[in-house]
Each structure stands twice: as C-alpha cells, then as structure tokens.
What does this fold into?
Amino acid sequence: MNGKFRVAAGTFFFALWLFASAFPAKAEEMPVAAHELEGIVVTSTPIIQGNVVDSFGATSTIVTEEQIRNLNAQDLATALRRTPGVNISRYNHIGSHGGAQGGGVFIRGMGSSRPGSEIKTFIDGVPMYMGLWNHPLLDLLSVDTAAAIEVFKSPQPQRFGNAFGAINIVPKRKMDDGFETSLHVAGGSFDTIIQRAEHAGKVGGTDYYLGQSFRKSSGHREKSDGQLTNYFGRVGRNLGENWRASAFGLYTDNHAWDPGEKGGDPLDRDGKYGTEALMGSIKLEHDYGRARGSVQVYSNRGEGQQLKRPDGRPDSTWEFTFYGVRAREEFNPWQGGELLLGLDHDVIKGEGGAADDKWDGHTQRITSPYAGFSQFIGDEYGLYAIPSAGLRRYHHNSFSSENAPFGGIVLGYKNTQAHFGYSRGVIYPGNEVVYLSERSIPALGESWKNLKAETMDHFEVGISHTWETLRAELVFFRDEGKNRYVIDPPPPFPPVYSNIGDYRTQGIEATLAYDPTRSLSLFAGVTFLDARPSDLPYAPDTTFSAGLNWRFMEDFLLSMDGQYVSSMYVNPQARRDGAAGDTKVGSHYLLNGKLSYFFTLGPQKLDVELFVAGENLTDVNYEYRPGYPMPGINGMAGVSMRF
It folds into this structure.
C-alpha cells in the first residue's frame, strides 16, 4: 500500500466517522427496525431491474444490489455479464489485469479502443477511470459500494459528457431509521476467499453507511491470482426541510497477474498489474418541488502499476488525478414543463512511467454547460406525448470546442410506450496522445495538437408494453462514429496523429420480463449487432441472456442465469491507421446458479442466508482471448448475516 494513499485514506475516513458521530443517538431512543428479507413476498427480477426511458427519450438499464447478490457477482464485469448489449473480457477469477482483454466491459461494440475508450466509468456521477490512458480500470470500481449500477448504452449529453457510453455506480444509503450490520464470508474453488462487512444507521436527519471488503483467489491457472481490497463510507445530513448535504469516500487497493498464453513462453507474460485509488466527494442538494438540484465537488487520485514483468522490463507506475465540480438544476416552470440546466467542470492530470524515466505529465480542463427542455402533453393515464430538445457545449484547454445536441419524443397510451431519440456523443483525446508523442514516439512531434474530438451520432427507436405479469421491450439503434483519432504511419515520414477513423454499428435489442407467480420471475434478452468494419472487437453478432429467480418452500431461493455469445473478434482496437482485427474467439454458452436458504435466529432477529453457487455448470471450454482458457465448472459456498 502506497504511504501517501494510506495517510489520505485514513484522514478521509476518520473525517466521515467524525461527521457521523457528531449526531449520536441512544439505542433506547431509536430502536433498531426489524429487517425483513428482500424477496420473501415478491421475487425480484433476475439479471436486470429494468430499462428506464427519461423525458428526453434516452434509455438506461438498472442493475440493483439484489441482482448483484443473486448473480453472486464479485466485480463489475460479473455484475454486468448478462446485461443485454454488454460483453466482457477477463483473464482472472478474481481481479482484472489492466483494461481491455485483461478485464473490460463493452457496450454494443463500444469500449475496445486502446489507449482511450468510448466508455467512461463513474461513481455517484464522479469520473473514476485511468485518467492518463483515458480508459476504465474495472478494479477501481467496487460493486460492494453499489445500491445500483446504471448502464447508459448511448451518448446522453443530458446526463454525462466526454463519452459515448457510461457506467455509473450509485452508492448505498441507509433510507430507514435504525441501525443495520451485515457480514458475509464465502470460500470456493481456486482457494477463493470472500469477506465483506457493512454497518449503516439512520437517526432522524442523519444517515451513514460504512463498508469494507476483501477478495482473494489463487486463480484457475498458474500466475492467475488476484486480490481486491476496498473501504468505503457515506454520510448525509438533512439541513432543514429542503436541503441536504452528503459526503462519500472510497479507497481501493488491488492486483491481478497475467497468466500468459497457455503453453507459451513464460517471458511473454505481462507480470502483475496493480491499481490503487482514493476518491472523495461532497454534495449539496435541494428540493423545493418545482425546483430541484445539486452541486457536487470531488477529487480522486489513483495509479496503475505495471510490476514484475518476467522479461526484465522495469516497473512502471502511471498516476492520474481528477478534480472538479458538477452542478445541475431542474425546474418545472409550468404544468408539464421541465427545464434542465447543468455544468460540468473537470480537471484531468496524468504522469508517470518507470522510476528512472518518469514523464512529468499534462493537464486537461474540460468545461461543458448543458441545457434541455421537455414538455408533457396529454393524460398520463391515457394518451400522452413528451417532446424534448437540448444541447451540451464543450470547451477544452487543448482542443477546439464542440456541440452535442440531443432530443426526442416519448409517446404513450396506457400501458404502451414508444420513444424516438437522437443524441451526439463527444470524446476528446486524453493525456495518452501527449505521452505517446513526448516519450514513446517522439517523431509524432506536436501533431496531437491538430486533433479534434471524436463524435458519434446515435439514433434510437423503441417500444414497450406492460401486461399484468409481463413486460416486453424492443429497441432499434444505430451509431455512426466519426473522427476517430489514430496514428497515420509513414510513408511519408514522420508519422502523425489524424482524425480519419469512421465506423458504424446498428442493431436490435429485445427484452422480456415475466412474473407468472409471486414466487417466480423470469427474464430473457437478446441483442443482434451489425458492425462496420466487421472486425470491430467485442462486437458479437448475437448475444442472448436469460435468468430466473424462484422462491420455493418459503425459505429457499434459486437463481439461475445463462448467456450465449456468438464468435467475435477480440483484443484492443489499436489507434493506428489500417489496424485490422485478426484475433477471434469462438461462440460459447455459460450457465451459472445460486441456491440460498434463509432463516432467522434469536430475539435479536439475526437474518441468515446460507448459499452455494456454481459457475460454468456445464463445464464449457471458452476464452475471451486465444490461449487464455477460462475456468471450467467451479463453485463457492458461504454465509451472510444481517442484524
């Protein structure tokens, strides 16, 4: 653990504890509320909680803490592996080795560019990714902090900027008065150990949530071990009837090894990749009914560590820093009208390298105000329409300004809803273009200064209908990407950065959720994707996922999930003109399951869950990269307690 991170983490979490303890309550004044296990009355939907269409005709997919628990997910990749339109890659049973093929999440063909990425990751709306290389590192994003995970499969300028798609973790919060403590211990195949502890409380207008987790595994192959360590805390305080202040912090320290290609030269392995980060944010919110908004200031810093490479290359550490402010205000100036105003200001720094060859770094500043308007027309219980339009404006300290318009219309009649949406995504080159120009490929010179932002035009049409126990949704989408920044190699000399990459993806996504009884819930989703160029990585033609949650004999819950993925090109999409995908993996189908038994002990109402879980139950041979076989059938057993 890096000393500076240890000191900063200790200081921040001590401050959270101090803030929470400033509002004490005696147990006899605020009795602990009896906890009722979720799912006893109505069984939750498997895989995802559902899809949400906002007033601007944009959709997002929600995965809740309960879905994460039922999937027995240990990280972000396993939490989202069955979400329609999402694909993953990985080497390790626990932990991610860097990004891309060593541990990545991809949405409808987006996210494979390296360095850089079309997808950005956030915690409570705050950016959390490798700011120097401009792409996500999944181990920085602990799912233990998540009350929900929001997946945005398209550009949505009214929600986020500088990305074509996004994943946002919504932190846990204690909503009901009282106190609650939970403990979780599990073990399984490959010497895997899981431990998690959480404590939360709410007394009047003050609430807090504290958590810690540890995961470790030897892995299914030699040199495939990994470890995840996380600490997080959240505290909030109501300031009168209309205002609220809250603070959130996360410290994470992780590593994973590259097992290398099976049967390959051990010297070709990429060693150990470590990640460490500390983030903190403070948010001030208000709600006056017709006017709602928030101001959030944040700061996070972290690093990726390339260590112990067997070929003798020196260790390298890549550091990043983010800080900035997010402000957002929503007004309802008249009946049915909504006016949205917002401003994001982000400062992104990156530096690092080998100890004897450290790059001093570069700083980027992005300011992006945005505004939108929508109007509800009609009867919410009958026929209605919600037209909308808006614009996000980008200002960058190193590149030219850009506009990102958005808008659409939502049409509904009783239980049927249709939406039509358009949005433009904007992504600026990150600090990676400066580093590569100044250190890796000096011949690039200052050609990076001539780059423009990448853009994507997104078009979407969807329709959904809800019956008493059945909900069906169908979405058609098309994405047109332009100005992808790549290195244009000689001839003629020298090589230069250029915006010459274009691509197009389009497809159909359908989901079906069916609750035939109060104790049985079924889900199925399919995505058909057509990509141009056809060798776009992590863009399979077909993905199909299905799942069920079945509560039986009152105290047992069976959760099953499965996914079929057709053959696909893999490995990062290099930012080099003419780079073609030539690495492909075959199709596969995976089946996983979890069986839980719930009971309550003693007068203190100790709720207990005993469970066994299995992955790859049909023992399928599959891989996300040729020569990197994934685990066969494996299992885990454990206990969760809550009081």
Notes: The CA atoms of residues 535 and 581 lie 5 Å apart. The radius of gyration is 24 Å.
